[in-house]
């Protein structure tokens, strides 16, 4: 016989705590999680999102710790939108909406410095996992700060309907660039052209020869490439870059599930074409967040930026959502709703 | 019966010419010649040294022209030290020593803007093909302007006894960096340590595992890599770069004789370690030449910079010297003497 019983737990921080106890509402689901599951090899460090600032230790050690946490089945640390339940820090009070470093769980105890208080609540809250959060800042920093775009330049974006790149393409259009994106389904290609305002988009899975496809879409060549995929796409892009082109390297999702990375040819183009290739981890550039918000909030409110989200319900959906990213199952930014309030 | 006869030709420019007729004394022999012999493929352009500034046309067209010139067995264009025989430009007069864009021939008609008048003649004239010419500027621009070195940083240099890198290593030591170089013979390794003042040097041909070798020489990792070789060396270096490292991409000699470039793994390190990779062609940065001369001339005169040259006699030695570069036959900067005065 099944006996049902229920009890109420009053969640509260210990009296001396300086942390913030939050109830998670939306959780972000991002490709970088996959890389943190790899056992660190050699000096190949993978600094995790906001953790770096929390623990100023050697990155190798930090990386090993992160991997251990994964392997020991601790809740996965990530970014989310949450509501403050109890705060040991005077900046936060019960009921505040925040976004920042939480975890794949219903409630998280976070360090105050890893949380941003949400100021604008007249936009969808889930946007703080996307256009108003880490992916938005990634698009902003990688495109404006690294690529320094000029009006009329030719911009190519891979994984273009993803959390970051759909914004890069729209920022590029607002700058007066010509923008082509690539994605893995015709549905995404249509969204890029019809909803995000890309000049062109194509389904890379339908192209036999990526080099030929890029030559077709960029007869004059590419000035700016926002790199999200790596491997064969990068190999083809290098052949099609113009002199003094810039490549903002944000991710290489095509490589994360491989036992050993693919070799990429055509790197000598970096010299012959005097290319800049710059990798970055956005968590080190959040000093620019207020400047970004100043730019993007009016654009959203005026409907000049759209943001495609793929929202699934329930914490239990998060693992499948993560796995889905690597086969391109998501259409737009993958968000998981943990609780609605 | 063999009849010997001789006649004197008086070399002179046509009256209306604005060019400069020079007698070549020293010619530079550099790896980039090899790349200009490839038929340009697709948009893979190879802007030639000083030619770009001379002909402001589309680079694809220019590249095809350069290739055609090679294939039609014209004298190979290159950089050299020469003496003015006749000048159609008032800045130059007969007897002036110059360096700049000449050719693999005894006499060349050059455009005035491709020649620099030699101001300092109390240093070996051949240095203007090396430390005081294009390789020197390459080391200066790539190391100081791209890599922005700081005292105490860890610097790795490949092809380290070559025309450019022997200088990079010495500039790095003058900046207070820890410098390790790699070369392909034990003789070169000894020169790097004993003559050029590198902290360490190793023969890459004696290493089974380049990654392990780099970990041995750089336990803390590499901050700055001056890239001359590409391929497997770059693959190993990427694993050993530190966060925020800089890679100045100057050449990839290991790839120039291959039908198809090798694939390079570990590119995702560019993201995880937030690396900067910058390719450059030094001819676009000669606005800094006076600043460089101001720095380097006193260093040479005070004996604080040494420069190893591999000088062969006679124009007929140039092709073999060029071929020799790709098997590492040269020890130091490869120079060919065409005439002694």
Automatic annotation (TrEMBL), chains A, B:
- Kindly list the GO molecular function terms attached to this UniProt entry: 2-alkenal reductase [NAD(P)H] activity
* Pfam name, any one: ADH_N_2
- Work out whether the entry's keyword set contains Oxidoreductase: yes
Name the keywords, alphabetized.
Answer: Oxidoreductase
Q: Which domain of life is it from?
A: Eukaryota
InterPro entries membership: ADH-like_C, ADH_N_2, ER, GroES-like_sf, MDR_fam, NAD(P)-bd_dom_sf
Indicate the segments forming the Enoyl reductase (ER) domain, all copies: 60-336
Q: Which PANTHER family would you find in this protein's record? A: PROSTAGLANDIN REDUCTASE, PROSTAGLANDIN REDUCTASE 1
> In its UniProt entry, what is this protein called?
Enoyl reductase (ER) domain-containing protein
């Amino acid at each position: 016989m099944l006996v049902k019983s229920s009890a109420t737990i009053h969640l509260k921080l210990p009296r001396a705590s300086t942390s913030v106890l939050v109830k998670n509402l939306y959780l972000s689901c991002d490709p970088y999680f996959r890389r943190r599951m790899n056992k660190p090899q050699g000096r190949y460090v993978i600094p995790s999102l906001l953790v770096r600032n929390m623990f100023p230790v050697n990155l190798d050690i930090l990386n090993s710790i992160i991997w251990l946490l994964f392997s020991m089945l601790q809740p996965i640390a990530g970014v989310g939108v949450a509501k403050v339940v109890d705060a040991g820090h005077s900046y936060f009070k019960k009921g505040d909406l925040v976004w920042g470093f939480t975890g794949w769980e219903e409630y998280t105890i976070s360090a105050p410095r890893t949380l941003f208080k949400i100021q604008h609540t007249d936009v969808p809250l889930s946007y703080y996992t996307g256009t108003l959060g880490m992916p938005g800042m990634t698009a902003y920093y990688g495109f404006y700060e690294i690529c320094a775009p000029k009006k009329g330049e030719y911009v190519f974006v891979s994984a273009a309907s993803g959390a970051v790149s759909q914004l890069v393409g729209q920022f590029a259009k607002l700058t007066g660039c010509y923008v082509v994106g690539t994605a893995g389904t015709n549905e995404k290609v249509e969204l890029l052209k019809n909803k995000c305002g890309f000049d062109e988009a194509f389904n890379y899975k339908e192209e036999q020869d990526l080099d030929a496809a890029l030559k077709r879409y960029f007869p004059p060549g590419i000035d700016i490439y926002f790199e999200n995929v790596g491997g064969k796409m990068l190999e083809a892009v290098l052949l099609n870059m113009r002199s003094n082109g810039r490549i903002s390297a944000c991710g290489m999702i095509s490589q994360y599930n491989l036992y050993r990375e693919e070799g990429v040819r055509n790197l000598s183009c970096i010299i012959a074409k005097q290319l800049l290739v710059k990798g970055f981890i956005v968590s080190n550039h959040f000093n620019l967040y207020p400047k970004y918000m100043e730019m993007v909030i009016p654009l959203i409110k005026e409907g000049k930026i759209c943001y495609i989200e793929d929202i699934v319900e329930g914490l239990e959906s998060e693992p499948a959502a993560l796995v889905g990213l690597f086969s391109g199952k998501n259409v737009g930014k993958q968000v998981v709703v943990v609780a609605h309030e």
